[in-house]
Each structure stands twice: as C-alpha cells, then as structure tokens.
C-alpha cells in the first residue's frame, strides 16, 4: 500500500509488503531499503515496524526478450493490518494506493477512508492494483476511485480485450454508488480505460527498439498515472497515455533512474 502526501509529486509512506524494520540490529537488506527510500525523500514515518528479515526475490532476466522470472520468498512476512492503518493521520494524504491482498483488512482500510472523506469533506483518492485472486478480491473494487486490472488476470477469466475487461468489471459493481474508473494495461497493445459514466478510451503503447528490463513496468505505469492525475490534473485519457509512456521508457533500461528523463510534454 502506498500513500501520496498532499502537494508532493512523489511520496510513498508504505512499502509493498506493508512493514519495515528499524532496530539496532537491522538486517543489511532493510538498511539498503531504508537508505534508498531516504535518498529519494520517500517517508516511512507511518510505516509499522518489524524485526523480521525482509522478503527476498531472485530475478532472472532473459537478455533476448527482456522478460523475467521471479523467485520469491517472504517467509510469512507480516502484512499491514487495519489496526496499523488506523494510527495514520489521513489529513496529510491526498491519495492512498492499495494492492489486492489481505482482503478483510484492506476493505476496512478503504471504508475508513470513505468515512473520513464524508466526515471531513476531504477527497482522498483510493486506487487499487488488482493482479491476483479475482473471486477473493473482487469486493475491493467498489470503494475505489480507480482500479488498475492486470492483463494476465483478465486472460485467466476469459476476457480478450481491455474494453471487455473494463466493462465486465464495471458490471460487477453494486448499484447505489458511483462506479470506479477501470484501467486495463494491455502490454504492447496499450491500455484501455472506462470512466464512471461509461465512456471508454483506448491509448496506444509506445514502441521501443530494444527491451532491456521489464521488472517494475507495472509499478511504473501506476506511478505515472498517479502523478499525471494528482499533480498535473490531466484528464483520464491523458493520464493513462502518460502512464504508458513511463512504463514504456522504464523497460529501456535497468532500474528506475532513467525515468527521470521523462516529462509530461512529449
């Protein structure tokens, strides 16, 4: 889960796994993570802490295609709970982004943001990265403003296009409230987006001559979309188009440093 502070272009208050460690005997793995976050001025003040070793992933990249295989071990690493989340001062945040996991706790977190918005008149945006376990996580869509749904999961459900995927997702939302915006990145085919009024947009991808490293392309897409929407106040189609550009540029190099070369204007 990530939380984006108000008036700040980039800022993640929670790591993907939900917890970080800060102890006198901190592992080298966590020290590297925290040093990297600090270097990029990414706050961790609202993160719960643990003395458990961090999750470990080995990534195997295919040089000819740039595709990757990930071997992941988290040793039952603790996930963020609703109790952790309830300690946050929401007034300092403008956007909270979730992954579709730990469904009971995540749903309570989303509902607490909705209640906070109603109580205070603030408009904290809620978004969801939906990549796994459709049946278990489908109920997480309804409280969201934006849902980004993976092509791979859509394929498992028999959905053939981004438009079909967006429309199928929208049809599952209970009546009585606003629909989320559904966004389906579709790899080299670009991405589709269905707004809350049923208007559909499809944005082409940006082709690259050489694919170097696809690891983190989806996260780069999400970061680009949040930035273009929250900070630059771009329209849905413009924000998704920029997200396509960010993800496409990311795969031309290792890591993420080169993404800073991009700007909102082409």
Describe what you observe in this structure.
This protein is an alpha/beta fold. It has two domains: 28-78, no CATH class; 79-265, Ribokinase (UDP-N-acetylmuramoyl-L-alanine:D-glutamate ligase). The chain has helices at 28-39, 82-85, 103-120, 134-137, 151-156, 162-171, 217-231, 236-250; strands at residues 2-5, 56-61, 68-73, 93-99, 125-130, 146-149, 181-185, 191-194, 200-203. It is globular and about 50 Å long. Mean pLDDT is 86; it is low at 7-25. This is Ketohexokinase isoform X2. One of its GO terms (biological process) is fructose metabolic process. One of its GO terms (molecular function) is ketohexokinase activity. It comes from Drosophila mauritiana (Fruit fly).
Which labels suit this protein?
9 strands; single chain; 8 helices; alpha/beta; 2 domains; two-stranded antiparallel ribbon; globular; UDP-N-acetylmuramoyl-L-alanine:D-glutamate ligase; about 270 residues; 7-stranded mixed sheet
């Amino acid at each position: 889960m990530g939380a984006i502070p108000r008036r700040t272009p980039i800022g993640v208050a929670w790591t993907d796994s939900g917890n970080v460690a800060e102890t006198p005997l901190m592992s080298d793995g966590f020290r590297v993570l925290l040093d990297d976050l600090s270097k990029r001025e990414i706050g961790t003040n609202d993160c719960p802490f643990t003395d458990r070793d961090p999750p470990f992933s080995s990534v195997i990249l295919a040089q000819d295609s740039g595709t990757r295989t990930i071997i992941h071990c988290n040793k039952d690493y603790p996930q963020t709970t609703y109790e952790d989340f309830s300690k946050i001062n929401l007034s300092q945040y403008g956007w909270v982004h979730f992954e579709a996991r730990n469904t009971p706790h995540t749903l309570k977190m989303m509902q607490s943001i909705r209640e906070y918005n109603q109580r205070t008149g603030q408009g904290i945006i809620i978004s969801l990265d939906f990549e796994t376990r459709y049946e278990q996580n489908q109920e997480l869509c309804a409280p969201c403003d934006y849902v980004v749904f993976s092509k791979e999961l859509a394929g498992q459900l028999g959905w053939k296009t981004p438009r079909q995927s967006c429309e199928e997702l929208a049809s599952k939302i209970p009546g009585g409230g606003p629909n989320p915006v559904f966004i389906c990145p579709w790899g080299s085919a670009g991405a589709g987006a269905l707004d809350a009024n049923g208007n559909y947009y499809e944005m082409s991808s940006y082709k690259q001559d050489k694919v170097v490293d696809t690891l983190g392309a989806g996260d780069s897409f999400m970061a680009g979309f949040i930035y273009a929407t929250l900070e630059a106040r771009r329209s849905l189609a413009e924000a998704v188009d920029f997200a396509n550009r960010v993800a496409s540029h990311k795969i031309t190099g290792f890591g993420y440093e080169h993404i800073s070369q991009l700007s909102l204007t082409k």
